[in-house]
Amino acid sequence: MCTASGIIPKFTDISTLAMADMPPQIPFSLGLRSQAMPMKLIRPDTQGTFFRPLPTAMVLKEKTSGLNPDEIAFKEDIGETFSLIYAPFYISRQHLVDGVTNQVLPQEKPISPEIFDRNRVRPGIETHFIAGICPACGADLEGSGDSLALVCRNCHSLWRARGKNFAKIKFSTVPPAHKDDIMLPFWRISANISPLNLASHADLARMANLPLAIPREWEKKPVHFWSPAFKVRPNIFLRLLGQLTSAQLAPPLSQTVEDNVYQPVNLPASEAVETIRITMAALLKPRKEILERLPETNVVPRSISLIFMPFNSSQHDIIHPDLGIGINKKALALSGNL
């Protein structure tokens, strides 16, 4: 959330009922249950009747976390993850019962079993799987459960699921100096921004009021916005946006998959585009004037590149060798929970 006093990073975890016309005693939200209680995946042999959800009901609700909406210049919801959670209920003696606590829910009149005669689904059966085999060479693909990109180290390619098949992903790699370097993915974005005049590296340096003499070649060098292609805590994510975009890196690139460890790509390019206005709010000056103009600013991406950059591994942190940017290893390990 961008306010006159600065950018406020928040993490939101909410649940919303994904069925319409349900009995009023069925809660609209799961509250803390989805965060505090253990859950398990649905299998084809899981017992119970499952109802088909309404996708339109599964939307991120407006949350201002106690702030006056008039104080917020604009906000961006970045890195949303939607999970479909089935909560158990059953009918006993015409009473609706919570399947977790086995407590009867209050009601004004008896419940008829016909209330549950709705469109049903078997998630475990309708879900389809794609074999993790490289379409190009037949080798095993590598990637974690939350990764949007799977790596083939045999033919140096990246793949993403599209429908019932795999589609190839264009990527570049900054060659690592050490075998224990960790390869972190980033999106590099060039975009048309209007009505702000922010087309070159020189424009960025002037509008960010950077304390340096602007070289002539920067006038012709296009500006790129950088965003992590992985999820991490909001305060760290916000710091990386500003540091990498300010640096305007132009490292040597190759299309080789190195033998190093690759951090999963779990933030899509569409979400990275939404970070551009946040990055401008963090970097550009004067802040008050920029915040007045950003809500009406139009951002149209021209090109988006996925680039893996090596970070040196130390005992507690991973560090970019040139910029000195550090990320705590524990924060990176916990990013899979976001």
Summary, kept brief:
This protein has three domains: 1-127, no CATH class; 129-169; 170-337, no CATH class.
The major beta sheet can be summarized as: 7 strands, mixed
Helix/strand order: EEHEEEHEEEEEHEHEHHHEEEH
- What is the 3D form? globular
User: DSSP strand (E) fraction?
Assistant: 15-25%
Structure summary, number of beta strands: 15
Radius of gyration, taken over Cα atoms and rounded to an integer in Å: 24 Å
Number of domains: 3
The N- to C-terminal Cα distance equals 18 Å
* Unreliably modeled segments: none
What's the helix count?
8
Content-based structural category = alpha+beta
Q: Which whole number gives the mean pLDDT?
A: 88
Helical fraction equals: 10-25%
User: Quaternary status of these chains?
Assistant: single chain
Name its key features.
single chain; 338 residues; alpha+beta; 3 domains; seven-stranded mixed beta sheet; 8 helices; 15 strands; globular
Describe what you observe in this structure.
This protein is 16% helix and 21% strand. Helix 4 crosses helix 6. By secondary structure, it is α+β, with helices and mostly antiparallel strands. It is globular. The model has no long low-confidence stretch (mean pLDDT 88). The chain has three domains: 1-127, no CATH class; 129-169; 170-337, no CATH class. Strands 9, 10, 11, 12, 13, 14 and 15 form a seven-stranded mixed β-sheet that branches. Strands 2-1-3 form a three-stranded antiparallel β-sheet, covered by helices on one side. It has a three-stranded antiparallel β-sheet with strand order 6-7-8, with no helix packed on it.
